[in-house]
Amino acid sequence: MGCCSGRVDAAIKKDAKSKESNHEESESKPEEHDNKGDAHNPHSEEKKGKSDSHKEEKKEHKGEESKKGPEKKPDQAGGHAGSLIARGDKLLKRVGPAEFKFYTSLFDEENKDEDLIELRKFVPKYFEVEQIEGKDYLVLENLLTDYDHPNILDCKIGKVTWTPDHNERKTADQKKKAETTTTGSLGFRISGLVVKDEHGAVVESFAKEEGFYGISPENIHEFFKKIVGEDKKQVKKFIRQTGKIIDWFKKQRSKIFFTASVFYVFGKNGKSQTRFIDFAHVYDAHGKEDENVIQGLESVVEIWKRLL
């Protein structure tokens, strides 16, 4: 489900039953452990009593969680391993303070910035903050809800992926990635990909460094094709949807984004969507156009056009 792509991308309602019988699928539920404590320990009746009490607390807690839907690992299409929890039509995301601040301010009812209000329709919807084991998670819209075995493509946007806040080591690392991937040549790189067959089995998948070093400006369209096949109608739809995000960037002067992603989803039931995701590095634009993101998104559109 950004950089950050990581990033993604996510959990599918209609796959829930098939996941129970197919443990190799990336969306499958993690095993629920039956926390029996020391109930089977014959050496301590006192400990057994405490365990029984603990079990009752667990049952009560589990009952509360069941109202929110089962928790499971989402499809991995980006760099979010361990930071995402899929729960029905919601996605819980563990984020840093910058992304936390961005989401909460973007969806704040008191936010009167017209540009940012319009941005809401291009990003995952934000609901609330939830604490899990003392850590804050954003509760976001699950972009994979009601899709039939979706294919996912996550593109990290911008030639410049290092920020003023990055230290020398991080900056050097990002510059090296730009030189050795399509970030430098095209202004974006594929940072996540999940391809499934008609039965929901994952036939190809990579996230972050696992795969993008083998992608070049000459063959990158072949990876785009993996999620749409020969469906030119869907290609045109992705182009239109991406174009709307570009239009927003060309008129807004509120924010600039580093290491954000454009996230594509295409299900076997024909449903699809395009969203802008991952906001760990967002800064005030001070009236300037975000050329870095605009050029990257326009480059993505040009690659889609190769499939027409």
TrEMBL record:
<dbReference type="InterPro" id="IPR038286">
    <property type="entry name" value="IPK_sf"/>
</dbReference>
<dbReference type="GO" id="GO:0032958">
    <property type="term" value="P:inositol phosphate biosynthetic process"/>
</dbReference>
<dbReference type="GO" id="GO:0005737">
    <property type="term" value="C:cytoplasm"/>
</dbReference>
<dbReference type="Pfam" id="PF03770">
    <property type="entry name" value="IPK"/>
</dbReference>
<dbReference type="InterPro" id="IPR005522">
    <property type="entry name" value="IPK"/>
</dbReference>
<keyword id="KW-0418">Kinase</keyword>
<protein>
    <recommendedName>
        <fullName>Kinase</fullName>
        <ecNumber>2.7.-.-</ecNumber>
    </recommendedName>
</protein>
<dbReference type="GO" id="GO:0005634">
    <property type="term" value="C:nucleus"/>
</dbReference>
<feature type="region of interest" description="Disordered">
    <location>
        <begin position="1"/>
        <end position="82"/>
    </location>
</feature>
<comment type="similarity">
    <text>Belongs to the inositol phosphokinase (IPK) family.</text>
</comment>
<dbReference type="GO" id="GO:0016301">
    <property type="term" value="F:kinase activity"/>
</dbReference>
<feature type="compositionally biased region" description="Basic and acidic residues">
    <location>
        <begin position="10"/>
        <end position="75"/>
    </location>
</feature>
<keyword id="KW-0808">Transferase</keyword>
